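Kindly inspect both lines:
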Amino acid sequence: MKTTGKLLATILLSTFLGVQLFAGNYEVDNSKSTVKWTGKKVTGQHNGTIDFKSGSLEVKDNKIEGGTFKIDMTTIENADIKDESSKQKLEGHLKSDDFFSVDKYPVSTLVVKKVQHKSGNDYSFTGDLTIKGVTHPVSFTAEVTIGNDRLVSGGVIEVDRTLYDVRYGSGKFFDNLGDNMIYDTFTLDFNVVATETSGTAMLETK
């Protein structure tokens, strides 16, 4: 009886002081999540994929509060070149010091700092993106759905590579590039699938 009484008192206190929120952590499913990159140049463009290394999201009351994502830079692949030799040449160049210095910096990181609801399932995100050991803020929008212990989110991040010391072929730093100029901005089209790993009930006062 005492235990029942304490439980009832806790429920009544929660109702009186505020609302009971559910806080949980969601872990990114690397096998189901994707990142597609696109880089453009004067004469065309290239695209491909890159894999998540790990990721987690903090969720409260079915809303994202923050998160951390790690990208495995060693997995950069090209998808549009059919000739295997040319494909491997481009992939090796992207991994070299001309671009992402993968041997020195095998992991890039995005830390979500702020999330704002826009409308429906659309949210705006602000966070810190670290590439080649250099960190700069980024902002982007994404669609998010949460339910049945599963979170799915998709969106596009535009990145100015020159901010992260990736200057090869940039018109900002080299003259007379002509058709060899590579545009500074590349895009990351992501689709994140995450599953709930833990959760706790939290009391929020009014």
Q: What stands out?
A: The chain has one domain: 20-205. Residues 20-205 form a domain with the Lipocalin fold (CATH 2.40.128.110).
